[in-house]
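Submission checklist for the structure archive. All mandatory fields must be present; incomplete records are returned to the submitter.

[x] Identifier: D-inositol 3-phosphate glycosyltransferase
[x] Organism: Micrococcus luteus
[x] Residue count: 354
[x] Sequence attached
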Amino acid sequence: MRVAIFAHRFLPETGGIEVTADVLARGFTTRHGAEVLVVTRNPAPAEFDATLPYRVLREPSPGELLAAVRGADVVFHNNALMQFAWAHLVVPRPWVVTMRAVLRVPGIPLSRRRKAVLHVKQRLIRRATVLAANSEMMSADIGGGAVVVHNSYRDHIFRTETRVEDRDRRRVAYIGRLSPDKGIDVLLRAVAGVGERGVPLHLDLVGSGEEETRLRTLATELGLRGRVEFHGALTGPQVNTVLNRAAVAVLPSVGLETFGTVVLEAQAAGCAVVASRIGGIPEALNGTGVLVEPGDVAALTEALHALATDDAAFAAAHRGREENVSAHRTEVMVDRYWELVQQAHRDGRVMVRR
């Protein structure tokens, strides 16, 4: 079967949507023998694409986009991509849409133009042959009724290489963008709070973003010089190394996360996880780890202190970790989405002019 995967952003960028598109493209190709073409708006060197086991079309012209749709048996939107959807009207094909980002961020007012765009996008995704979402929370955001397929983690990269009992429980890691919605300032204040209780923690921050300068300043103001290490952006294997040095990984988000794949990567690498009770994160943890309210410095401080000093609390945070990781292996997600691609192909419904 020929599958065109539409992805607004793609490798070599390393966000969740970008990585998931690669996982699906590889899985469809290697596990199910599909002929895959990834179509994306962001550029990359040709030599990078030559290393991939599938074809990539970047920054397509209108003619190239139409040819990509014409050559596909099924079109797969890895998050709804309006800029490419017009091609379905010209060259009708069965199409699958999986939603991975909320349509509207709560609390942010919409302009008249943005409201119109949102209305069009909502109608657009409802015309997909098959509509999926990466969490129950994401399905509810688009009005319900989507097939829920949880994200997987990259099990060929993230694994436990250092025994849990050999790790320093005072070593904590954060993996992700350095942006305001991630709540890293809350984490820094919590690390300082644990230190004030006589337990100095070491924090590894992996990622880049617009908050880096402010966070460096805040770390200094909180007296954390030498106890917070900014690693910048790292490759997957390098991230796995950082996680294997840590005993605890934290996702302190204050903004909506539709799933939170990083908590699975951290668990796969052997970390106990502390994360915000927001969006789809509780679904990703599925009763494992420790959940705290977003933005609650005191609660995060208490959780980190307990994991560093209380054997029972540390053991409880690991309970069910391996089972949760196993349930989110790459093949589980790939095979479920392949079933949806086959369903769309059998159904045959296409987008038509109305």
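[x] Structure attached
Curator remark: Residues 14 and 295 are 26 Å apart (CA to CA). The two ends are 29 Å apart (CA to CA).
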